Amino acid sequence: MDHHALVALFTYIELASCLFALCLMQYRRQISQYKPLAFLLITRVLTQAISLPLETMSGHQLSRSAAYHIYFYVYWTSYAVEAILGFLIIYGIYNLAMAPLRGLQRLGMLMFRWAAGIAAAIAVTMAFGPHAATSSFVLRVITQLQQTQSVLTLCMLLFVCMAIRPMGLSHRSKIFGVSLGLGFLATTQLVSSAWLTQYKALYSMIDVLNGSAVCIALAIWIGYFAIPEPKRRMIVLPTTSPFLRWNQISLALGDEPGYVALGNITPDMFAPAEVEVMRRASMKMSYPVAN
Question: Considering only CA atoms, which of 121, 187, 124, 176 is closest in space to residue 152?
Fold first, then answer.
């Protein structure tokens, strides 16, 4: 089979796999828990549902130029939406993984928002170039945003692999499965972006690799949503655990601190009623009342 036939085959497999994964998530009643992932699957379904008829109508019901322009905007719009949804999936995975430790969860979510904002600013800054057209600027922003999201995804996968046991999870948990599939996609996207300039053909080996990687990631998600998830274990941390200490510190951040009076206290600092109460208390301490 040539590259064109392989890409078409993977496209139909991807469309069927996305629909099956959505039905499986609905059957397990976990769409609300993994809502960004469900939106990502819906986005890919809509993209393929528009792209496949365009390819068929190109040169017949539609001119090749019109079909190309429609495909161009559909592809890059979905690419941008998928990059944003990738950030939301990472955000949701961290939120679920750190649910038992509310302090670290809150602190990590705050740091993630800052990281996402800085990543978006860097993507826009790096897109600027001399004599750059508007379309070229938008494509650069989307590409940089997708690459940044891929790097953050791999970092999140590494974090989940390291913290899966302390957080009471297992390698059969859906949190790990969603992270694994997303990390597989992120790795492929980073490799594809590095090789993209080397392949000028419309259908090349890199497109075949992308199609196979998407199908493998979908197979991972389908497998993890199909198998029963083990119950999350109770977290038991030693008193010297850094997770426990940082969680206590994170819980205290932002709260109003307590106050302690230190030295140089004079009677005029107290209200008359307070002075009277202390006077009577001192008298009782000096002359105990006999029974």
Answer: 187
Q: Which range, 172-176, 218-222, 241-245, 279-283, is most confident? A: 218-222
Task: Please report, as a single letter, which amino acid is at residue 81.
Answer: V
The yes or no reply on domain 3-241 and CATH 1.20.1070 is: yes
In the block, tokens 């493998």 appear at 216
Q: Which long-range contacts (CB under 8 A, 24 or more apart) does 179-182 make?
A: 179/93, 179/153, 180/220, 181/217, 181/218, 181/220, 181/221, 181/224, 182/86, 182/89, 182/90, 182/93, 182/153, 182/156, 182/157, 182/217
Q: What is the pTM of this model?
A: 0.73
* Residues ≥6 apart with Cβ < 8 Å to 104: 98, 243, 246, 247, 250
Q: Rounded to 5 degrees, what are φ and ψ at 58?
A: -65, 125
Burial class (CB in 10 A: 0-12, 13-18, 19+), 134: exposed
Q: What is the mean pLDDT of residues 229-239?
A: 73
Structural domain spans, the chain: 3-241, 247-286
pLDDT for 21-36, tens place per residue?
999 999 888 888 899 9
Q: How confident is the model at residue 291 (pLDDT cuts 50, 70, 90)?
A: very low
